[in-house]
Amino acid sequence: MGGLPEGNRGVRIVVCDTGPILHLREAGALTLLAKAGEVLVPPGVDREMTVHDPEWPRSRPDWLRVARLSDEDSRQAERWRGIGGWGPGEAQAIALARSVRADWLLTDDAGARVVASLLGLEVHGSLGVVLWAAAGQHLRRDEALAALDGLAKSSLWISARVLDEARHALERIFS
């Protein structure tokens, strides 16, 4: 996993779909996103988070910004939803990431990751955020392990093999 580039703007632009926000929040590690740069979500992600937690509109972090989609980006997102069978979050997040030329798109959806990569976006997931934060010294060893354990207990499905590889990666980071 590469680091997060800052591009020519000086500020890293990170676009998220619902999964990473939900999973990192469940793991008690949502604030890691604030360290990554300017965090944007499309309206569909904001609505999906409200379905998961009706308190979301009042508890949404100040550093997370809901960004409107252009009409063309909205139409493109709807086309992708029809093709990929995604919810509005994944499709809108990919459209937004392309539109704002995001440095990083966060999604835990395997199909969305493949499509976004094919479209030239740098894509990472919840687990990648934890590893990035550890490698960037935004987390101490005990915090990184707690975040990893939190993800393992969250609604994110992680295979035992991937979880083991992540633990080994953290060992290398902190050795």
Write a concise keyword list for the protein shown above.
disordered N terminus; five-stranded parallel β-sheet; single chain; Rossmann fold; alpha/beta; 175 residues
Question: Could you characterize the architecture of this molecule?
Answer:
This protein folds into 2 domains: 13-125, Rossmann fold (3-Layer(aba) Sandwich); 128-174, no CATH class. 58% of the residues lie in helices and 9% in strands. The protein is built from 10 helices and 5 strands. Helix 9 runs antiparallel to helix 10 (160-174). It is globular.
Could you say what the CATH architecture of the largest domain is?
A: 3-Layer(aba) Sandwich
Structural class: alpha/beta
Number of DSSP strand runs: 5
Biggest pleated sheet: 5 strands, parallel
| Helix content range | 55-70%
The neighbouring-strand order within the major sheet is 3-2-1-4-5
Q: What is the CATH level 1 assignment of the largest domain?
A: Alpha Beta
The CATH topology of the largest domain is what? Rossmann fold
Elements, N to C (H/E):
EHHEHHEHHEHEHHH
Count of separate DSSP helical elements: 10
Name the poorly predicted regions: 1-8
Strand content: 5-15%
CATH homologous group name of the largest domain: 5'-nuclease
User: What's the end-to-end separation, in Å?
Assistant: 18 Å
Give the overall pLDDT as a whole number: 91
| Total domain units | 2
Rounded to the nearest angstrom, the radius of gyration is 15 Å
Basic shape: globular
